[in-house]
Design a protein that fits this description.
It contains 18 helices and 26 strands. It is α/β, with parallel strands linked by helices. The strands form six sheets. A nine-stranded mixed β-sheet has the order 2-1-11-10-12-13-14-15-16, with helices on both faces. A five-stranded parallel β-sheet has the order 4-3-5-6-7. A four-stranded antiparallel β-sheet has the order 17-18-20-21, with no helix packed on it.
């Protein structure tokens, strides 16, 4: 049977916005301090954004980069940019200008929307990009997002820049956007890390975003009209698809420019927040900041938290739930639109001790309803490992919640889809009840405060230091960030250096979040008989050092 308009429409999460505006036009859609927009207003603003982009020459497939914290404009671009048939690229605000310039070049950015706090970063990145590209380079046009609640230093605007609100006024509030003809068209591209040598841009599709957003609603049992607090950075793979999920439920988005424990508690009290996402480091901050007065506000309601990133310790889960929060532990990658597995709760666990419940909840769990396949496979044979909780294999996924491929990188795409599965690079065991539990990361990824850090990238910088002979980077427990990079180095014969000098060198060549929090200088690094550095031994040494102690600024 042929499919036509009567029985087929390409899937796109953009339709959720129109539905919310049609059915609940006056319901609050976005709240940011004293600023409020209804769903009707948000639809008009997103249409204006799409129209203004088209009038500036942005068309199908063009990449529009956005560099901003969780302010209303950052929510609006999730709809407005793809409504212009363009591809959205939300940039990690923690990157340095060299990395941003590389990513801009790699994806061919045609326009940049930037919050005024990050003007210095973007101006530097555009200068670096121009210097590399030469005289024929056509710089993207820049739109500046001004924020009356921003308390930082004012920065100079790039020549020819537009103000965001003025830019919206250029657009048509009745702009007739169209669905993609092919639902597998790219809706956004997100970079997996601050890679500078070979960046991997993850292409997500309209279809996948639609299904992933609805899967979030089902998995988390989100209610119609939910009040969602934006503690999760929207630049993390489109906020795990929650911009579209909240629209599907005609909920309310509470924006936070800075994530602090005080801000979280205040938002919960003022807006009756029902849901928010948080890395384990934020959970620790909430636990540390909980006082008698704040706790009393939570005793009368149960706020639902979704957590992912580095696996939360069972003790953290037990403490956060003791405060009245209900935690759902999920796992995923940028390549899977964010979370794609959940530690789904079984009623028979209700009678277990709090410690045992927390231990079970720390597992990565089972597949989302929208994920077709989840397996723990032997990386060589691609056969499933035994469900014995002991045998280690690689976590692999397949289905509509798996990305389209890496932008301009067919070799990496083919490798990641080897054998008809997406290979996550994460190593796990499979328990008899079908729940997976990650034990290690095949590529030595360090997850610090929810950010993925490649140890190989940090090591490549350390090897550039004139005094360093050998270098290896592993994860060390960190009170604030969950884990942070710890560098082990040996020095060249007759050359002297110290920890602070090496750290200073790293600060000059790495984004701040990738800089090791500690450096250990050894006479020689532990090696196998074949000369390979034994990272497992170094991990043990890093753990023996204890947690990095920091004063939280959240």
């Amino acid at each position: 049977m042929d499919l036509g308009e009567a029985n087929y429409a390409p899937l796109s999460p953009l339709v959720f916005l129109e539905r919310a505006a049609q059915i609940h036009p006056q319901r609050p859609a976005v709240i940011y301090n004293s600023r409020r927009f209804t769903w009707s207003q948000e639809l008009q603003r997103c249409r204006r954004l799409a129209s203004a982009l088209r009038r500036r020459g942005i068309g199908p497939g063009d990449v529009v980069a956005v560099v901003a914290p969780n302010v209303p404009a950052m929510y609006e671009v999730q709809f407005g940019v793809p409504m212009a048939s363009a591809v959205l690229n939300c940039v990690n605000i923690r990157l340095d200008q060299r990395t941003v310039a590389t990513l801009f070049h790699y994806s061919g950015v045609k326009a940049v929307l930037v919050d005024e706090e990050f003007l210095h970063l973007i101006s530097g990145a555009l200068r670096d990009w121009t210097a590399k590209a030469g005289t024929l380079f056509q710089a993207p046009f820049v739109v500046v997002i001004r924020d009356e609640f921003f308390q930082g230093m004012e920065n100079s605007w790039p020549p020819g820049s537009s103000d965001y609100e003025d830019f919206l006024r250029e657009g048509d509030p009745s702009f007739e956007w169209t669905r993609p003809e092919d639902e597998t068209e790219t809706i956004s591209v997100s970079y997996t890390s601050g890679t500078t040598a070979s960046p991997k841009g993850v292409m997500l599709t309209h279809r996948g975003a639609y299904l992933s957003a609805l899967s979030e609603c089902v998995t988390w049992e989100m209610k119609h009209g939910c009040i969602y607090l934006w503690t999760l950075p929207l630049f993390h793979c489109n906020g795990w698809c929650f911009p579209w999920a909240v629209a599907a439920l005609a909920g309310t988005n509470i924006c936070l420019r800075q994530v602090t424990a005080k801000g979280i508690f205040a938002a919960i009290a003022e807006h009756n927040v029902t849901n928010f996402c948080a890395a384990p480091t934020v959970l620790n901050t909430i636990i540390s900041a909980a006082t008698g007065s704040t706790f009393s506000r939570l005793q009368h309601r149960q706020v639902r938290i979704m957590t992912a990133g580095a696996a939360p310790p069972a003790t953290v889960l037990a403490k956060i739930e003791a405060l009245g929060f209900h935690v759902t532990h999920v796992y995923g990658l940028t390549e899977t639109y964010g979370p794609c597995t959940v530690c789904e709760w079984n009623p028979e666990w209700d009678n277990l001790s709090p410690d045992e419940q927390a231990r079970l909840k720390a597992r990565q769990g089972v597949k989302y309803v929208g994920l077709d396949g989840l397996q723990v496979l032997n990386s060589e044979t691609l056969e499933p490992v035994a469900k014995d909780g002991v045998t280690i294999g690689e976590v692999c996924m397949r289905g509509n919640m798996v990305f389209k491929g890496y932008l301009n990188n067919p070799e990496a795409t083919l490798e990641s889809f080897r054998g008809g599965w997406f290979h996550s690079g994460d190593l796990a065991v499979w328990h008899p009840d079908g729940y997976i539990e990650i034990k290690d990361r095949a590529k030595d990824i360090i997850i610090s405060g929810g950010e993925n850090i490649s140890s190989l990238e940090v090591e490549s910088i350390l090897y550039r230091h004139p005094a360093v002979l050998e270098a290896a980077v592993v994860a060390r427990p960190d009170e604030k960030w969950g884990e942070s990079p710890c560098a082990f180095v040996s020095l060249k014969y007759g050359v002297r250096s110290n920890e602070e000098e090496i750290l200073s060198f790293c600060r000059q060549h790495l984004p701040k979040f990738m800089v090791p929090k500690s450096v250990v200088i050894l006479a020689a690094l532990d090696k196998t008989a074949t000369g390979k550095i034994q990272k497992q031994v170094l991990r043990s040494k890093a753990r023996a050092l204890g947690s990095v102690k920091q004063i939280s600024k959240l």
